[in-house]
Protein 1
Amino acid sequence: MVLAGWGSTAAMITSAVSLGVAGDLRSPFILDEVLRLYPPSFMIGRTATGKSSEFPFKSGETLLISPWLIHRSSRAWASPLDFRPGRWADRVPGAAPGSLPFGLGPRRCPASRFARTQATVTGDLLSNLPRPQATEVTLLENRSPALSQRRDKPDSVPERDLSSIS
Ligand code: HEM
């Protein structure tokens, strides 16, 4: 439990600090939007154990599901790369289509409520600190090289304008 929860909670808090919203984690929708744009579990792996007529996978094959990419899909979200907490006003966290920061199904994170409490308590502790300037570099470098720009294709990850975050 400790190993599963340590890094993901730290990544969630780091993302909030980097966005300059750590002190607002108790505010409605801020935490959901942090978890949408910067899901700590950016990749979930499974091994296919049998054949299915529904999916074209063979037994033994590795499947990778990326909350990071799903959360940034324009099929599920309007202006998916923008940090817009207000988009959660008409959505239910945990049941919104295109959102799976805590996974889905029987292996869904059993500690999602605990993690949310960790976030709000941390937000209270940090609420008096000065806001750092928002920086996406910190956010990406805390994740995997797979999420960073390719050197040979510098445009492969769209630039985001974080100046509007306050
Ligand atoms: C923001 C914080 C967290 C995020 C985003 C997160 C995310 C996830 C995700 C996506 C899974 C499913 C992985 C999969 O389907 O393979 C998972 C599983 C799990 N999480 Fe979390 N988690 C967080 C915090 C925590 C904390 C604080 C704990 C423990 C205190 C915890 C304990 C676990 C455990 C034990 C599992 C495995 C459940 C199983 O396999 O049945 N998580 N988490």
Protein 2
Amino acid sequence: MSTAATSLPPGPKGLPFIGSLLDFQRRPLQFFRDLERTYGGMATAMVGKRPVLFCFRPEHIRYFLVENPRNFIKPGTATGAGLKLFLGDGLLTIDGEQHRQQRRLVQPAFHKHRVDSYAATMTRYAQETIEAWRPGSVVNMASEMQYLTLRIITKTLFDVDSIEQTRQLGHAFDVVISNGPQRSAIMGRLIPSFSAQREREEGARTIDTFVYNLIAQRRKTGQDTGDVLSMLLAAQKNEAGAMSDKQIHDHVLTFVAAGHETAQNTLSWTLYLLSQHPHVRAKLLAELQTVLGGRLPTLDDLPALPYLEAVINEAWRFYPPAWRQARIAIEDFELDGYHIPAHTITILSQWVVHNLPDVWGDPENFRPERWDKQSGQTIPQGAYFPFGLGPRICIGMPFAQLETRLLLATIFQRFVPQLAPGARVVFQPLVTLRPRYGMPMRLDANDMLIPALQKV
Ligand code: HEM
């Protein structure tokens, strides 16, 4: 280890003893952006007794995630705090050699050609969901999208399709995520209320029962369906990658949790943004009408739908479901003239970096046109990282890109959802950026397309 004196960039003094803990906990979105505006590219805030470093420049994102990932692990992976309390030893919450080996093992299940084969299931389930919708009625779009994305992930990755189980599972995830101790990796131990703790434990039990039943059923049939679960079970038999039942459980849980929570947020926020930007909506509807003419989208249609892709890319910039990532340094490191000590926690925030005026020009505008290659906008590597970057980039990225496009296109074939009158849209920045009160939307029929659909 280096003997050079360590130094950290300046930041707010905060309150005696707790520093900026309250800002960090109660209004992190505003706090993070204020830090960048006040201190520039780097800042240090005391969260309780702990200094937390914030790095806001695209080159910093590259430094941590792409150029030096081996020096930075995730908070909680060593101590068992934070997300690890819930997800155990799944891919999101392991590090080092263990992570590299397990990632190699499951990677084939997420290769493009394999993910592409899920397209028909994605569209079919989306169609089934909207068939239950009635024009003019109001639905909680966040719950609808949660149910739909959960159904898709459990069917495609684990070959399970039970409507009742999916509903129970959705509720259990909601309870665990809203009452979870996920913040404690950085802020120290939070004592949840007794009732929150009890609810959380019940939710976690429901999820555990689901996952262990899934493993037991597949063992009983002994069938190799080539899906993620088959891969994990096959690895268990093989000495090199041997895994315990608990490890398989943790992987399954991680894929289900990570695979639906972020996708449902993407869809809720994108539908919300489209309801607030009539010009964008009209342009998207025109593209869908020209290319699909009212029929359901297929994988082969996607290259002909660039505006759909741009709308989703822009929604990921504007309201990133993963709004911040954290890392802990294994060894001291040098960055921008500071000599930062080992064990420092660093926050990298999509919420801030996706909104830097010198990179994006007009970040406050929701403008899918910026993703058009002809637009002249250049986006430096590290400025846009909704899925992370480097060796730990989201393994489910191709899955999410396919799913969100197909689902959005399918919904718009029949409905143009509008924010319900009186709806309160408020951020709830937990593990993901959720809408705190759900997303009540009125289901206006897509009059332009209904005649065409009837002909199909
Ligand atoms: C819009 C959808 C999604 C977003 C925005 C998203 C975002 C992210 C981000 C930012 C990371 C990196 C976290 C870090 O390095 O600290 C990540 C990792 C991960 N994501 Fe996703 N994700 C999405 C969908 C999915 C899906 C559909 C799956 C599974 C089917 C999935 C499974 C995972 C897993 C297992 C990891 C850990 C990868 C590793 O560390 O090797 N995600 N995701």
